[in-house]
Each structure stands twice: as structure tokens, then as C-alpha cells.
Design goal:
The chain is mainly α. The chain contains six helices and no strands.
């Protein structure tokens, strides 16, 4: 992943330094925006239709056990063809792309869960904004 983006901006999710819930929300929203930019970058718009189909399949199914074999079955193409054409057009292997999308979605879920916890805490404990 380091090859495609500066992952240091996702390293530190230390929210204990903030005393105000608004600052926590701002920090989390910045992280979510960075993830969105990263994922948008890897949707690979403007590439051939097949590459877009592969990317969309991965994005929609990354929560499941996904492999080049399953992609090839879904798109009715051989694994070798998909792997070769994807690498040729994107410069990365399908497995690398799956990893990037998987990590991005996991980080996004962590941020959203933290925001949900803080919102519940604010409501239950009466934190003021």
C-alpha cells in the first residue's frame, strides 16, 4: 500500500488528545475524507470498461472471501486474462488492489464506529457540543 499512497496519515488515530467532541468529529471526518480520496483514486475511472467492472466487483464484494478465481467466475473470463489486463492497465496486481480496498474499508468502518460511539456517549452522558 505504501507504494500507492502515504499511509502515515492513517497511522495515528489517537483521539485522547482531544477534549472537545467537535474536535474528535473533525479529526475523524478528515480521516474518512482521506479514505474516500484513496478509494476514489483506486476506482480507476477512465480506464477500460473491463477494469472498471473488476474494480467495482472488488469494491462491492471485498467483505467476502474474494480472489482472482471468484472475479473470473463472475466476469466469465480467465484468471490469467484478468490478472494480465489489470496489471497492464493499472500497474498493480489484482491482489494488491483487493488489499488496498480492504484496508480502506476497514479503516473507514473503524472511524464510523468511533463516531457512533462518541455520538451515543454524548447523548447518554449529556455532553454538550
Amino acid at each position: 500500500m505504501e507504494k500507492y499512497t502515504d499511509i502515515r496519515r492513517f497511522d495515528n488515530l489517537n483521539l485522547t488528545q482531544f477534549i472537545d467532541i467537535n474536535l474528535i468529529e473533525e479529526e475523524l471526518l478528515e480521516k474518512v475524507k482521506a479514505i474516500k480520496v484513496l478509494v476514489d483514486k483506486f476506482i480507476l475511472k477512465g480506464k477500460r470498461t473491463l477494469i472498471s467492472e473488476i474494480c467495482n466487483y472488488i469494491i462491492r464484494n471485498v467483505e467476502n472471501e474474494i480472489s482472482l478465481g471468484k472475479i473470473s467466475e463472475a466476469l466469465f473470463l480467465t484468471k490469467n486474462y484478468i490478472g494480465d489486463i489489470f496489471k497492464q492497465d493499472t500497474g498493480m496486481a489484482v491482489g494488491e488492489y483487493i488489499t488496498i480496498i480492504d484496508i480502506s474499508k476497514m479503516f473507514l468502518n473503524v472511524c464510523l464506529n468511533i463516531m457512533l460511539i462518541w455520538e451515543r456517549k454524548r447523548v447518554l452522558l449529556g455532553y454538550k457540543v
